[in-house]
């Protein structure tokens, strides 16, 4: 391709890329024949407060010039990708494969251009663009955002809680020894299970973020969401989509209380879900149940209503979730396997059991997290595929899906569409109590419920099997009263 002047080069970029913010730094120059088999440093200044750096190289290849790409910070080598990549990113928590995560010191950095080939009388113009994340400006992250796995609305099935060798996940080695289990085994099992997305949530660390960045291009049918299980002495919580490390040490000067931690989660751009809140906290399960006083529920997005195979009884999270709903908090019920071994020995929950099923505008990180926050979500306790729970509530001429709000009225109607639960029973739950039940007839069934009296609070649809065990757990429609 012939070299384009910078303005024309920008005009030739695909529309999605052209909408990116203007680079913080643009560095231009040319490689001539005299640069053959030479290294050319291209220096640039990084100001204080930068949290991510994304570098892009464009150059004229028409005369067989080849330019390799690497990076040095003011003190050390930060990576080399040769001619493999034209774009990379580095941050404290993760980096493009071939590059090293770590602190981003202010000062003089150098993009290093290596020139394995430049013909004697050639001249190849290049342009290096550099983007920074600083505070609320996330230009470097936007430049590295993966495209949606599926760019269409739909129901997407995922597992939001799992661990690998970066925390306490383990599995059998080739010789049968119990070893820390590499992340790719977990991702491979999730792909084999037919899931659409997973969140990998190692305890208190971001060490797995770079590996997820490495694996995502290969697993191009499975969305990989970075997460952290924030593990404290007063409870565990998953955070999804953080841009970096969140200090979990409640009680130190930087994080004096739970609200300071929650602010840190929000500042990292993540959403927070409280894990297995009804488990005991003691030597049997240290810090497992949620006991933090003064939790700011406005900064909690979700509750893990089902953890692993605990879908009913006093240890399930459903009662804790319903109690918070009855207090007036709007929280999405989700689920996660809490898998620590992808081979799931000894009756442990396999990856994908239970499954959180999210209606999202697209299968992307932003799409799934926005879908969870919106609340059009249900839990498939068994996992697998083929089951569906769609709910539409109507009152006063308005209709909403799960997660939506209606002004409470007489004759609130609930239209329910279920798949794959023939012979089960559907129940209408109002403010935590079962109000009505209907039998499910057929594999593809439509059921109607009606509230004749005006009810304030919330209502949800659940589905139980013939023995009364939960199969599908729906999220609320909120019924508001003036």
Written account of the structure:
This protein has 482 residues and is mainly β. It has 2 domains: 6-144, Jelly Rolls (Sandwich); 154-385, Alpha-Beta Barrel (TIM Barrel). It has helices at 6-12, 15-18, 139-144, 183-192, 209-215, 258-267, 318-326, 365-374; strands at 25-32, 38-46, 52-59, 66-72, 77-82, 87-91, 107-117, 123-134, 137-138, 154-159, 170-172, 178-180, 197-203, 223-232, 235-240, 271-274, 302-307, 332-336, 355-360, 377-380, 388-395, 398-401, 405-407, 412-419, 425-430, 433-439, 444-451, 457-464, 470-474, 477-480. The strands form 5 sheets. The chain has a 15-stranded mixed β-sheet that branches. Strands 1, 3, 6, 8 and 9 form a 5-stranded antiparallel β-sheet that branches. The chain has a 4-stranded antiparallel β-sheet with strand order 2-7-4-5, with no helix packed on it. A hairpin with a 2-residue loop joins strand 25 (425-430) and strand 26 (433-439). It starts with 5 loop residues before the first helix and ends with a strand. Residues 1-18 have low confidence and may be disordered.
